[in-house]
């Protein structure tokens, strides 16, 4: 049983991963403080209100700005746990510093400094990423034992190369620096691989949905690349966060990833139920062809060399042992996600 006597705060509550965290907390009878940019935007909050209406828990909204000092003071007051999930996930931005690094780094700093000022906070759970551990699939090959672990930090991303991975790395490093500078609250990080699965409402802007949309609209119809990745279901990620928040025996970083796979293998799981209605890929794209056309489709050939047909491996044993995660089959995740996207009108039938 969770301790439901004190409220908890979830940043980015309207987001993809955060929505499932909020859902689990409300179902457990928690009071959730949700700092949002506009607490009066009923359309954007509709799905959260619907869940709260059918749950024993309660949700309260507070106005906050990720980049504004002290913005989370009201929302955090009285909370025992802070879930910091708010951070952009996009690989296509015009200004990496402004669009990725600042929100990730400054937002993390603002939330954790505020935790220093709120005496009720005892634990912060940070949504980090496997991107804070690696940049390219070749990094997993070059890792000790050919596998990512929680002991590894990303050293290959930069503001100029894979800035999303760089933003997640510097944000998590900042979090650990701030956590170690005090001794009242402790920090736990969840480091998921590519998060897939249905949302609880709306049309998330996460890169995860962009990838699946490209599959459903036929962008991969001539072949999908075998880009080595890890994949995890969003529902497992939410469970990991809640377990990390309330189990005193949980500590440190946690790779949360259910499957070592690649882009083609992921979208291939959709072929049996949806292949006759949607232009899904039937074959993988040869590495040499991807390398050849890379500049024409906005990709760097160096990135192709480091990721295409390169296996991806991560050690998820800590998430199983400490967090009790049981990973569902990949096809359950992808098919649930695709069905949700159909219902939300992401693409038309082919």
Automatic annotation (TrEMBL):
Record flagged with keyword Oxidoreductase: yes
Molecular-function GO terms, alphabetical: oxidoreductase activity, acting on the CH-OH group of donors, NAD or NADP as acceptor
Residues that span the membrane, as ranges: none
InterPro entries per the UniProt record, alphabetical: Epimerase_deHydtase (IPR001509), NAD(P)-bd_dom_sf (IPR036291), NAD(P)_dehydrat-like (IPR050425)
Domain NAD-dependent epimerase/dehydratase: 8-245
A Pfam family of this chain: Epimerase
Source superkingdom: Bacteria
Keyword Thylakoid carried by entry: no
Keywords: Oxidoreductase
Family of this protein: Belongs to the NAD(P)-dependent epimerase/dehydratase family. Dihydroflavonol-4-reductase subfamily.
UniProt-recorded name of the protein: Diaminohydroxyphosphoribosylaminopyrimidine deaminase
């Amino acid at each position: 049983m969770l301790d439901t006597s004190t409220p908890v705060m979830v940043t980015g509550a309207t987001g993809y991963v955060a929505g499932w965290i909020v859902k689990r907390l409300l179902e457990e009878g928690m009071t959730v403080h949700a700092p949002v940019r506009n607490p009066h935007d009923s359309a954007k909050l509709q799905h959260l209100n619907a869940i709260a209406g059918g749950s024993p828990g309660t949700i309260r909204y507070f106005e906050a700005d990720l980049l504004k000092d002290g913005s989370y003071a009201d929302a955090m007051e009285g909370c025992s746990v802070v879930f910091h999930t708010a951070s952009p996930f996009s690989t296509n931005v015009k200004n990496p510093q402004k669009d990725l690094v600042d929100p990730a780094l400054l937002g993390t700093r603002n939330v954790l400094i505020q935790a220093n000022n709120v005496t009720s906070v005892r634990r912060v759970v940070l949504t980090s990423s496997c991107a804070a551990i690696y940049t390219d699939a070749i990094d997993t090959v070059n890792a000790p034992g050919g596998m990512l672990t929680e002991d590894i930090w990303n050293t290959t991303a930069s503001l100029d190369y894979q800035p999303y991975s760089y933003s997640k790395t510097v944000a998590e490093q900042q979090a650990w620096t701030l956590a170690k500078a005090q001794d009242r609250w402790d920090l736990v990080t969840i480091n998921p691989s590519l998060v897939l699965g249905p949302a609880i409402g709306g049309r998330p802007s996460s890169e995860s949905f962009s990838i699946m949309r490209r599959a459903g609209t036929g962008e991969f119809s001539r072949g999908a690349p075998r880009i080595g990745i890890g994949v995890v279901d969003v529902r497992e990620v939410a469970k990991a966060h809640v377990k990390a928040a309330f189990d005193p025996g949980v500590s440190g970083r946690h790779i949360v990833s259910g499957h070592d796979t690649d882009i083609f293998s992921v979208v291939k799981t959709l072929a049996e139920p949806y292949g006759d209605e949607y232009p899904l890929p039937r074959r993988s794209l040869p590495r040499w062809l991807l390398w050849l056309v890379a500049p024409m489709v906005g990709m760097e050939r160096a990135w192709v060399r480091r990721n295409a047909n390169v296996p991806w491996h991560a050690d998820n044993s800590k998430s199983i042992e400490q967090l009790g995660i049981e990973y569902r089959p990949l096809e359950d995740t992808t098919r649930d996600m695709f069905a949700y996207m159909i219902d939300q009108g992401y693409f038309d039938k082919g």
